[in-house]
Design a protein that fits this description.
Helix content: 40-55%
Largest sheet: 6 strands, parallel
CATH class: Alpha Beta
Strand content: 15-25%
CATH superfamily: NAD(P)-binding Rossmann-like Domain
CATH architecture: 3-Layer(aba) Sandwich
CATH topology: Rossmann fold
Order of helices and strands: EHEHEHHEHEEHEEEHEEHEHH
Radius of gyration: 19 Å
Shape: globular
Number of helices: 10
Strand order of the largest sheet: 2-1-3-4-5-10
Structural class: alpha/beta
Number of domains: 1
């Protein structure tokens, strides 16, 4: 029996895992927690929970993800993205277990002209990116059998996210300015959750991996696709430069992640981003 702790369970990815996990699976028992059930910044509480429940795998979906707010709240961001994952990794390693840590494309500087591989040098440009990278390193150092999954542009039927925001704004406004010079790959959290369950079922192969949906687009392209699939045709979406929409945290201009490693290791077929988006919008 594998006892699996999922932290940050009220977020997008955590909720997707909660929905997909089979409660009748005789080989796995899931413990879904958020801050009310387990404060992962409390080292003693983390150790106690993992020992008392016989946890053998931790899936850490908890994070400080308010990228702009993080610039003025670095200590809290570091606590959640760096220190707390270290506590989880140390605790599960102490009982012979392993861990899956969710990370981000923000560990790169976004200046590349080809998809980033797991071997490329990291160079985060924001508090969020630096703390997530520190969290990666801490988990790998503290738990030898751990897996780090970097993802990007995450959305879901759960919580607040870009897809829901663009649907709402598209219905409220007659005009939107969306940046066209930031390129990446959207990720449907359900597809990532399905992979995580696959990795748990087949066996966690340690290392750093990249996972997003297939294909690339700009935020402008993404927004146009959201509106088309939702049937919003009376909102004009205009392409603007990044400089026209100033924010505290620097955004990567190019953050496409190469997924060759994860596809080869697990024999994955990953959906094209627009097919995944269509599936999500159908669920909303």
């Amino acid at each position: 029996m594998k006892n699996i702790l999922v932290t940050g369970a009220n977020g997008q990815l955590g909720n997707e895992l909660r929905q997909l996990a089979d409660p009748h699976d005789e080989d796995s028992r899931f413990f879904f927690t958020d801050v009310a059930e387990l404060d992962i910044t409390d080292r003693k509480a983390v150790y106690n929970f993992i020992e008392q429940h016989g946890i053998s795998i931790v899936v850490n979906c908890a994070a400080y993800t308010a990228v702009d707010k993080a610039e003025s709240d670095p200590e809290r961001c570091d606590l959640l993205n760096h220190i707390a994952p270290g506590y989880l990794a140390e605790a599960v390693a102490s009982v012979g277990g392993t861990m899956i840590q969710i990370s981000t494309d923000y560990v790169f500087d976004g200046t590349a002209c080809r998809p980033y591989t797991e071997e490329d040098a990291t160079h985060p440009q924001t508090v969020y990116g630096r703390t997530k990278l520190a969290g990666e390193e801490c988990v790998i150092r503290s738990c030898a059998g751990s897996m780090v999954i970097r993802t990007a542009w995450l959305y879901s039927t759960f919580g607040n996210n870009y897809v829901k925001t663009m649907i709402r704004l598209g219905k409220e406004r007659d005009r939107l300015g969306i940046v066209f010079d930031q390129i990446g790959s959207p990720t449907y959290a359900r597809d990532l959750a399905e992979f995580i369950l696959t990795a748990i079922d087949r066996g966690i192969v340690p290392g750093v991996y990249h996972f997003t949906n297939e294909g690339v687009c700009s935020w402008y392209d993404f927004t146009r696709a959201i509106h088309r699939l939702e049937g919003i045709d009376d909102c004009l979406v205009e392409a603007i430069h990044t400089e026209e929409y100033p924010v505290p945290a620097k955004r990567p201009h190019f953050s496409v992640l190469d997924k060759s490693k994860i596809k080869k290791t697990y024999g994955l077929h990953i959906r094209w981003w627009e097919d995944a988006l269509k599936a999500c919008i159908k669920e909303l």
